[in-house]
Design goal:
The termini are far apart. A three-stranded antiparallel sheet has the order 2-1-3. The longest helix has 14 residues. It has a domain of 69 residues: Ribosomal Protein L30, Chain: A (2-Layer Sandwich). Helix content is 44%, strand content 21%. The radius of gyration is 20 Å and the shape is globular. It is built from four helices and three strands, in the order αβααβαβ. The chain is α+β, with helices and mostly antiparallel strands.
């Protein structure tokens, strides 16, 4: 096969590394099931918050419907979200688009 016969495909850019890396947020959403005191306990145990920080985030969830409880690399964010879900809180991930 001659060099002229080779087919050159256009370069496809992938953004997998950027999508998996970068900053991600763990967001806890309000639910009608869990008691506020229970949410405080979970935040303290899972995220290591002190009492005041745990209460602040619990009140955000209660009053605003959501609270960003953690931000960082995706793998760690997934771990936190999964653990919070195991404690029966509604936690989701979203990209942190802050500069």
């Amino acid at each position: 096969m001659a060099a002229a016969d080779t087919l050159t495909l256009p370069r496809q850019e992938t953004h997998t590394e950027e999508a998996l890396g970068g900053a991600w947020r763990v967001v806890v959403l309000n639910d009608p099931v869990n008691l506020m005191s229970y949410v405080v306990v979970v935040f303290r145990r899972v995220l290591g918050f002190d009492e005041a920080t745990a209460r602040k985030h619990m009140l955000e969830v209660h009053e605003q419907g959501r609270s960003i409880v953690w931000s960082g690399l995706r793998e760690r964010a997934e771990h936190h979200a999964f653990t919070l879900q195991q404690w029966h809180l509604t936690a989701v991930l979203e990209p942190d688009e802050a500069p």
